[in-house]
Amino acid sequence: MDSYKTLREEAFEANREIPRRNLAIYTWGNVSAFDPCRGVFAIKPSGVGYEALTAASMVIVDLDGNILEGSHRPSSDTDTHRVLYREFPGLGGITHTHSVFAVAWAQAGKPLPVFGTTHADHGVHPVPCTGFMSAEAVKNNYELETGNLIVETFKKSGLDPAHTPMVLVAGHGPFTWGKTAAQSVYHGAVLEEICRMALYTLVLNPAAESLPEHIINKHWERKHGPGAYYGQRS
To answer: Do 38 and 68 meet the contact criterion of CB atoms below 8 Å apart?
Structure first.
């Protein structure tokens, strides 16, 4: 009996969403699914195309980086995932892609302003962009230091990763997360769309300013606040 069957399947299905949502081509992205009770996660194998993935090909890794099960090497971004799971409580899934518009903002080294209500529905703050990694950090464990860079960016900004489930890594690309692996991919798709909208906004009006705070708060609260009324009652 495969004790990690459910976790593997969750990661597998989430990884299949990457090409479906046009978030990456070839092998340019990965998703992991985390089991906090056991302190392990299932993650895409490195360099394997999405069409060749199976649930059984997902690799099981613990938070110390030990491979517990799997016949493949895990994603090269595995150490970034494990840093985020250790440092950001409540995460159940992490997605990393090289989606075009999010990468464009990351390569520009710019945080993403809250220009409209689509963004405000998913966060009241600009999406942060890290600084560029130092030469010393690159010489160390690059992927581990990527995770450390993200964590440090959130600490310096005072942002809550539960309320801002996305980040741009300067010169690299986006990482997003959620309570489940599926939700982390959803946030990856949302980030790509709001990056695209923001770019077009600046093309049309280079002097565009952030949405007024009272409108931002209204859109966040109606979906996530104590009196939220968006959607259907369960």
So the answer is: no
Q: Is 121 a catalytic residue?
A: yes
Q: Is 85 a catalytic residue?
A: no
pLDDT in tens, 122-132: 999 999 999 99
Superfamily of 5-224 according to CATH: Class II aldolase/adducin N-terminal domain (3.40.225.10)
Task: Tell me the two tokens of residue 116.
Answer: 């409209």
Catalytic residue, chosen from 2, 85, 121, 200, is 121
Which residue among the candidates 26, 62, 160, 230 is catalytic per the annotation?
230
Comparing CA positions, the residue from 33, 36, 29 lying closest to residue 76 is 29
Tell me the per-residue pLDDT of 69-105, one tens digit each, with 9 for 90 and over: 999 999 999 999 999 999 999 999 999 999 999 999 9
d(C-alpha 36, C-alpha 102), whole Å: 29
CB contact at 8 A, 168 and 184? no
Q: Per-domain residue ranges for the chain?
A: 5-224
Q: What is the pTM of this model?
A: 0.96
